[in-house]
Amino acid sequence: MLARAMREIPKLTAAVVGADVQGDPSYDVSKTGAADAVRDAGQQAKKTARRANTRVRGTARRARKVPGIARAEGQIKGAAALRAGPADRAL
């Protein structure tokens, strides 16, 4: 076993020198299965976020279309403005 490991040392040294000094890597991280898994997870997360955003926008749109909501909000804001003193309104 030790003899085999000793035979591999020159090959490993040549690979490290080739990668670090000559800029010729023998191992490309972007081509591994782990990189593919991370890419897939990122795409899934993006798709899920896009769906959630679409749902939220649709719900907000429907809420704005409910009859009387704008009038009720206006009345509440008006009542709050009437209760505020003159110093509060200046701010």
Describe what you observe in this structure:
The chain is an all-alpha fold and about 90 residues long. Helices cover about 80% and strands about 0% of the residues. It has four helices and no strands. The protein has helices spanning about 1-20, 35-65, 70-85, 85-90.
In short:
78% of the residues lie in helices and 0% in strands. It contains four helices and no strands.
**What integer is the average pLDDT?**
79
Number of strands: 0
Structural class: mainly alpha
Q: Could you tell me the strand content as a percent range?
A: under 5%
Through-space gap between termini: 82 Å
Largest sheet: none
With helices defined by DSSP (H or I, 4 residues minimum), what is the helix count?
A: 4
List the uncertain runs.
Answer: none
What proportion of the residues is helical, as a percent range?
Answer: over 70%
User: Nearest-angstrom radius of gyration?
Assistant: 32 Å
Topology as a string of helices (H) and strands (E): HHHH
Q: Describe the global form.
A: rod-shaped
